[in-house]
Amino acid sequence: MAKATGSDSSSRRFLGSAMLPPMTLTDDDAHEYRSIAAESFRETSALYEDFLYQQNRTLDTRRWKLVRSKDNVQVYRQRSGSNDAGMTTTASAASLAASQGPVSGPPTSLTSSPGPLEDDTLFIGPGSSLSVASKIPVLVSTGTVQGTLDDVMYGVFTNDTASLRRRAIYGKDRVDDVAMLGALETPTHAAPFDFLGVAWMLYPGLGALVKQRDYVVLLRTGIATTSRGERIGYGISQSVSHRDLPPLQHLDVLRGSMSFCVLYRQLDDQLVESFMHTVVDPGGAALTFFVLQEIAASTMGLAAPIECAHGKKLRWYLQKTAARQADASGASASFSSSSSSSSAATEPNHPSSHQHKPQELSVRGESAPSSCSYCHKSIGKLFSQSAQCPICREQWVCRHCSVSKSLVVRSSRHKVGMTTHAYAFCLGCFLTAKNRSAVDIQRDEVLPKRSLAASR
Question: Which of 288, 306, 324 is the C-terminal boundary of a domain?
């Protein structure tokens, strides 16, 4: 993924993960990284429990300034002179911190749970520490998203390079490249969303003002409970250092730092609350104002995990249907590929000219029926827009009775090996996929692949 150009400076420019050295993770690394993840969770959960149980789901405006609001999402900046380290932990937050690490692991786990906190103890977590060191204020965002906690966690979950790239595309993240460098914990049947690993992210520069910047981060996802027994999901991205991947200054890439932790809680049957605690230091001489605006804008996309989950469910349903059809016909699935990577068997290919094309709404062929399979209204003849569902391949539906979704698919024509392609699904197949259990699909996808070797 590196690209050479004419000038000496640009010929050294680092553009992708292919040039990264291999990373070796030791038991000492695992112990340290679990402890860091626990501290990040502890810091955010203490603030969230104060927000949830003591402040009636509001933030103290003396400490937090609203900087952006849209629909049901609000982003707050910590006011000058107000330090996260000065937060007094409540009894409920102390109880949670004492009883919960980022995950309740088995007795043999190396999980390092934080020790108990006494009331009125001041706690400085990795986010607060980064804020103090960088002089960049903490951002907190709150909001809600339609869906279930399991669906959100299914959308948040990543365990290899392919899933990282897929999530970045669904979330419209402005990254040049991402890669999973190694895994320390993988999902189990009882905890299908648990993962602990180290990832690398490369962000584009902004002309001469801001150089390319990269981050080496600890990724942690899973399920925990609050001090009052409420089930919550979490996702952590916390900058770490590693001897095998020092800063890439010789390639004109700045190493940034981030501390990010998001918590999710089910409010009712179809509504999930999100609480996000973020500090990002891009490094170099980037202006804090522009950094805050960029981060605030990115935190507005709380619906991205649900969009990702729906896309992944449809992709899974497509793959399963193709496999059943292939078994019945004795042929290979039309969008299966080599199983050399952990994601290959579940990733549909970008349709090619010789394959059956699950098209977006398109001009009908001569063999297409004359009426919609759902509303039974006449589709018309030439140039009427209709589509054959790529899952059942039986229902022809008009524009009004189909659901168009863009799925992330493999494509050798794009530098990260993935792109999006629009498909039109009949309502029946779309709702069937959408309503499938995210936990069941997650187990089906990841448990047979417990090795979860990072693909680079």
Answer: 306
Host domain of residue 138:
17-79+124-306
- How does pLDDT run across 116-160, given as a tens digit for each residue? 334 434 457 899 889 888 888 899 999 999 999 999 999 999 999
Distance CA 147, CA 306 (A): 7
State if pTM tops 0.85.
no
| Residues 134 and 266 occupy one common structural domain | yes
Q: What is the pLDDT of residues 379-422, one digit of tens each?
A: 665 445 567 888 988 677 887 888 999 999 887 666 667 889 99
The half-sphere exposure of 151 on its side-chain side, counting CA atoms within 13 A, is: 26
Furthest CA-CA distance within the chain: 75
Domain contains 300: yes
Give burial (CB, 10 Å; 0-12/13-18/19+) of 256: buried
Sign of the torsion formed by the C-alpha atoms of 423, 427, 431 and 433: negative
Type of residue numbered 402: S
Based on the structure, what is the number of domains in the chain?
A: 2
Q: In 3D, which of 149, 309, 152 has the Cα closest to residue 226? A: 149
Instruction: Tell me the two tokens of residue 35.
Output: 């402890």
